[in-house]
Amino acid sequence: MLLPLAWWTIRSRKASFAGSFVTMLCALALTTCCAVLLDAGAGASPAQGGAEVVSFAVPFGFVCLCVMAFAVAGTFSLSVQQRTREIALLRAVAATPGQVRRLIAHEVLVLTAVAAVPGCALGVLLADGLRAWLAARDMIPASFPFAFGPVSVVAAVLICWVTAEAAVWSSGRRASRVRAVQALGEAAVPRRRVGAARTCLGLVILASGVWGLVAIGSSDGPGAANTAVSMVMVLMAAVGLLSPWVGKLAGSVFGALCRALFPAVGLLVKANLGAGYRRLGAAAGPLSLTVAFAAVALLVPQLKWDEQWHQERQRLVADEVVRGDGAGLPVAAARTAAAVPGAGAAVGATGTFVNVLGDGGGDGDGGGDGDGQGDDAALGPGGMAQAVTDGPLDAVLDLGITHGSMRHPGPRDIALSADLAQRAHVGVGDTVTLSMEDDRTEKARVAAVYTRSRGFGEAVLPLRLAARHLDGEQPLLDEVYIRAAPGAQRQLADGLRALHRAEPSWRLLDHAAYRAEALRARDASMTATYLLLLVVTAFTSISVVNTLVMTTMERSGEFALLRLVGATPGQVARMMRLENAVVVITALLVGAAVAGAVLAVFSRALTGSAVPHLPAGTVALVLGGAGLLALGTGIVTTRIALRQSPTAALRGAG
């Protein structure tokens, strides 16, 4: 009985459900894309790039799911609010609260079913396009099998449906609980009180977001970067729940300001903002999410890169760096480079991974066999490390050592970054147990603690120590750092050119070439981030447009009444421009506040300063783009609403 009624409601109110349909269509496309990629990646072998696809799809899907929940909640809630009079009439003709809630749930089900086929088809096409894009940039092998089952598609539809049902539950519950006479009154005059449960939940989530920011501030830079976007989602969820209070505060402040600056039109603006504070909060929500997410997604990697390159410039004191075109350089390359005429020092390095085990973390024998097995329960902090060949390390790299020395390290002497040493609660002179790449352990002595670890590694250890854990494979060097003897820079350059002619696969990099390669590596690593930002920003932009169109078109009857009592279309348009400006300013302030809090805490964890260096161009692009999108949408929608004659608009509103 209720399912046909839900279908009839959607067909008879296409304009009211159009925004919800578009949002659900985009949500299904993004969710299906992530589900299909996860399914295909899980079924592919490591050689086919399955692990790379899964590692890309998991964070991509998490962010898309959070943004989708926010957008769907906003548009579906607005759709329910716009039909308050219709729901009130149903209550007046003896519909029970349960029937009203089930009707709204059936409407969501019908809308999800209608959007499922085109949304899932778009999602599959998007997933195939992403697969081809990743393969074209050598991020996954071209042989990656794009094979998935129906379960992933069905799961995507179920996720979107459940999310939408949860989004409208609060609005449907409130609409069904009021008495029929009260409901008819609320249809004419919006309810003034904000629900206590919603407010309490919003405050709890806000408190958890603040706690998360405190945790970011006490973590290391990479860990802070991984949780920065998550904190944006948590804080924006709190903003969404507290949006009526945001709208009430913004309406009071900006309404009074408009009344003072524009006495005639400002009076109407102040009255509208005071009565429609829920509409103001709902309209500002998606736009503030766009601003906050875009700012953090763009600026966090930029801050990381700036700090990493700042430390790299201080760390690299070698005159030349040698790299290989293939898998790497042989260990003998360090000795060969050291023998080049004019070379004062040459040290090779290769990347590895270590963990500092806690008490009882292993029984490494300390004699070099390293056959003890690490205990997962005692696995301590760790990270990327650099295994270096014998030689004067401080002659080619200035690690910013604060305690100890690596001038003449012993066979079991290591250096730890200040962050790793703090997390492992060790210092210079302590003996630690390291879990190596093959999960076997080694005893080592902390000989130094250094500060310039960004983009380099959390530990430095002898290559001979790390080579014991390669299962018989010969170690390969990532690069060799070469420092010229005093006054022998030209002689070194000539000798290295001769070496390059003898070994064409060995690439010689001076400081400028080294930076150019670092920039190319940064751009390659940022490609996936920019893609995620593009997709999510497009989705949130659609949500912004939907919300603004819905909140403007529902006021066609109000515009008609104003024109019938003597207001000109120009005066109504000016009133709406002021209201749209208030929406934009509120959204920009909220989004900037959320992004600013996250960026300040992240900057403090990364650099020690809570004042991040923000590129003016990027900030202007985020704020200006979001503002122009919202203002343009509001102006165009108002013009469309004013094209109708007042009498026709009143008939449509009724």
From TrEMBL:
This is ABC transporter permease. Residues 60-177, 531-646 form the ABC3 transporter permease C-terminal domain. Its main location: membrane. One of its GO terms (cellular component) is plasma membrane. The keyword Membrane applies. Residues 385-493 form the MacB-like periplasmic core domain. It is a multi-pass membrane protein. It holds the Pfam family FtsX. The chain crosses the membrane at residues 56-80, 108-127, 147-169, 200-218, 224-242, 281-300, 530-549, 581-602, 614-636. Keywords: Cell membrane, Membrane, Transmembrane, Transmembrane helix. It is found in: Cell membrane. InterPro entries: ABC3_permease_C (IPR003838), MacB_PCD (IPR025857), Membrane_comp_ABC_pdt (IPR038766). Residues 360-381 are annotated as: Disordered. Belongs to the ABC-4 integral membrane protein family. The lineage of its organism: Bacteria, Bacillati, Actinomycetota, Actinomycetes, Kitasatosporales.
